[in-house]
Amino acid sequence: MTKPLSGRCVLVTGATGSIGRAIARQLSQDGARVVLHYARSGDAARTLASELGEAIAIQADLSTPDGPTALWQEAEAKMGRLDALVNNAGQLTASSVEDALNDWHRVWASDIQLNLIAAADLCRAAIGHFRSHGGGRIVNIASRAGQGGYRAEAMSYGATKAALINLTQSIARGFGPDNIQAVAIAPGWVRTAMSDAYVAQHGAAAALAGIPVGRMAEADEIAELVGFVLRPSQVSLSAAVLDVNGASQMR
């Protein structure tokens, strides 16, 4: 029986984090060849590539202006045609309006570069490639934080994720005629090392407050959704923002 992503090649950024690993495993299970991006965790990326079989690991620093485009170019050179991009890499950096202005600017610049500009540069490279190869698919991992106001200590994170959603929908509208589809996935709390650290500091009740289903999402839930979105049949999902937040936020 043919797997739904057989013959497809997908670049996944931030592939060594909890969500990135789950996405890579799901895509491989669905038949895709996977390009695993990593920034610093080279051993973890190579181990994952070995586990998956039809996968390669590529290092790139997305916090630099040239890093995202260099990543795409290397992936293209090594794999030939790429069929999809999953922008999963991101960060949340705490800040306060009471911080020194230089510190405030540093946090905002860092979050904007990694969460938005790097994703935009990769989308730019992907669009050019897809137009030359008959189409392609982009999945941007956004956040519940981008769907409304967010915590005062993480406004830069919320703002960049909101912009990422808008970017996704602009791509879907602007490049649909080129057979390019773009979808955003907006998780709430997902069980990761970051959420575990929050629970350790603030307690489980604080993390789960306001989540009617009573638990965080699992990384595998996000991964399964990415795999579904990338199926060739799912053309009409383009421009969708898929909420995965346990009914904690509704639009």
Task: Describe what you observe in this structure.
By secondary structure, this protein is an alpha/beta fold. It has a single domain, classed as 3-Layer(aba) Sandwich (Rossmann fold), CATH 3.40.50. Helix content is 46%, strand content 15%. The protein contains 8 helices and 7 strands; from the N terminus they run E-H-E-H-E-H-E-H-E-H-E-H-H-H-E. It has helices at residues 18-29, 42-52, 67-79, 101-132, 155-175, 193-202, 204-208, 219-229; strands spanning 9-12, 33-38, 55-59, 84-87, 136-141, 180-187, 241-244. The chain has a 7-stranded parallel sheet with strand order 3-2-1-4-5-6-7, sandwiched between helices. Helix 5 (155-175) links the parallel strand 5 (136-141) and strand 6 (180-187). The chain is globular and about 50 Å long. The mean pLDDT is 96.
